[in-house]
Amino acid sequence: MVLSVNSVSVSLGRSRIVNDIDCYLRAGELLMLLGPNGAGKSTLLKAISGDLPYVGSVRLAGRELGQWRPEWLARQRAVMPQRVEVNFPLTVEEVVRLGRPKTASVGSDPVVDQLMSELDIGHLRHRLVPALSGGEQQRLQLARVLAQIMDSPGDRLLLLDECTSALDPAHQQMVLELVHRLAKNQGIAVLAVVHDLNLAAQFADRLLVMKAGCLVHEGSAREVLTPYLLEAVYGFTARVIELDEGYPMVVPRRGGLPNAYLAPGNPSCRQAS
Amino acid sequence: MIRDAAGRLGFAPSLAIVISAAVIVALVSITSGAYPLAVADILSVITSREASDPVASMVLLEVRMPRLLLGFLVGAVLAVSGALLQGLFRNPLADPGLIGVSAGASLAAIAVIVLGNTWLGGWLAMAGEWALPIAAFFGGSCTVLLAWRIANRFGQTSVATLLLAGIAINAVAGAATGLLTFYANDEELRSLTFWTMGSLGHAGWDDLLVGAPFMLLALFVAPWLARPLDAFLLGESVVGHLGYRTDTVKKAAILVVGLGVGAAVAVSGLIGFVGLVVPHLVRQLLGASHRVVLPLSALVGGTLLVAADSLARVVVAPAELPIGLMMALIGGPFFLALLLRTKVI
Q1: What residues does each domain of chain A span?
Q2: Chain A: nearest CA to B338, how far in angstroms?
Q3: pTM of the shown model
């Protein structure tokens, strides 16, 4: 097991944002985390990335996060935050190289070159980051994050928080195909927060659904993406079409939104004592 | 050829340019002044002491040399401190004065000037001519520690709190300084005014002895922070994701700035502008990577301060302009021109 999360709760101030979550992740598995805004997805991801203090246990390759040396942890776990803003004139290549180990800091680096071309930012190599578009910056950050764990041995974990939110459809597809390929070929375990249900249906091995800080459902795309569950979690009505490609597609209905407050409770959520 | 692929001047050529500029400025600085020296005099003093003109030898070894070295060190430390804080705060407007170190140092120095004959008479008698620099260093360190303690209340260093605490401490120290100014007599007023405008005029080997160890320490520790500071430019959480100990980096940077600037202010008074503008200038020309910005800021800052100091003692010779004034006079318009030419900060 690359990642095991056991009864993790996160509180910010007095409110409990993440409530008693259990989940695990095997090598090569692509797990996607769904849920409405404010469900606690990013907060859970931040707890696993070490940005927020939590109660409970988060183990990477069987060892508690707190017991890792930071520099070793960085070789096994890479994190792509929702937003990274760069205001200083760093070049694209300089930023990607920040992800590399210290020893790889001089001369040309094949890992960096390959990632930049695979994420379609090779032609921007010498451009200044503040002058890039939002989508280009997002691909750049993914390249930096992947460069960090690309050639590390052992169990690796990749945490992605809405890594396709600024991308056009072709680049969304490109990015997730790359992530999927890395998971399958290199055995990297991926935990990704996504909002696009159809991308999730297409690429995820397993889906986790969060609502109000709790894990409310877990399963394959076919099991999770049902009209009933979508209505229960998001409060909107949608049609789910089974595609010939073997995964479902969610088509929202116009005017299908009035049920946000009528959504049924979360039966599987254990209340905090 | 001389430019790198990003269209910027590469590290090696810029290093060569800055070092040659530093050598030229050092030569000009050491030869010019109320007692002009020729390069031949310098060579003769260095090669054969007994045969040379005793006055030239005295001027060179006891006046110009310590002044040159001190000027270079102070400029380098102020510029590097500015670069460190701008990286840490992710803000090109950050300046060594921001965390309260200059305000604390000047409050202590002015207290020594104004109260030296009354309440602080004992201190003056005990520390002699080092009373002022030691007090300034102490005052600067205390304010940094205070701001730091406030920012560290919850076990982690909050950069935003540090900034706000610095602003509050600056305000209080400024008010206390104003009170002392109000209380000062004419002679003290003149002396404290000069101190707040900065000067290398009295620089001697003893000032170097007091200030240099701290300033050199700051200059040698700073390059170790270059890589994590680059990560800081992407945001504080990214520093941790990349495997650096975020809190250790922050503490080291603040400590380096506190020690370095405290020592610099103690020996030369308040010299603004270098810390704000030099790193900015270097970033404009060479990019924001701290592995380039830190060493080149040190060299450019040192060179700039020595150049300003040489001008300051030539323009109204045999008197001297305060160097802080000189700095602002040359640098202000230059900086404005730079701002008008560029779009991205």
Answers
A1: 3-220
A2: 15
A3: 0.87
